[in-house]
Structures are given as structure tokens and as C-alpha cells.
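Researcher: Good morning. I'm working through a list of sequences from a screen, and I'd like to move beyond sequence-only analysis. For each chain I'm collecting a predicted structure so we can compare shapes side by side. This is the next one on the list. No need for commentary yet; just the structure.
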Amino acid sequence: MDSKISLSFDREVIDQAKRFADKNDMSLSRLTEFLYSRITSGTYKSLQELPILDWVSMVAEGEAEYLINSKSRKSRKEDYLKSWG
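Model: Good morning. C-alpha cells for this chain:
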């Protein structure tokens, strides 16, 4: 069963990913699903263990940077709301 999610990416990354998906006769949704299924099918304990270098090189130009935020989602939301007022 398919479910919908909303994601935000840099416009250039999206454009490149769409071209990559098109060249491989798949939708961007299916490409994203494929990548998530590959990532979650392993026994990876951290981002550093993920075999992402190949697909990052194919989809994105330049160096990919992953920022790990140790704050909880609730804490980040509270910080955001406080910044408005």
C-alpha cells in the first residue's frame, strides 16, 4: 500500500534526480522508494555506514553533507516557535 509523504530538497538536486529517474524509466517517487528500501534493508547503525556514495554521485553534484541534530523533534519545534516570538 502506498503512502504519501512530503520532503524538501534543494531544487537542483530534485532536477537531477528527476533526470536520473527518467533515464532509468521510473518516477521520482519510485526512485526515492528504491533508495529508502536499499538503505533500510541493511544492518546499518549510522549514516557513516550507509553505502550512499554511489547514488549521491549519480544524483547530486558536489559534496553531500549530512548534519545530525541530536535535539528531539519536539525540542526543535519549540526552538522554532520561540524564534518567532
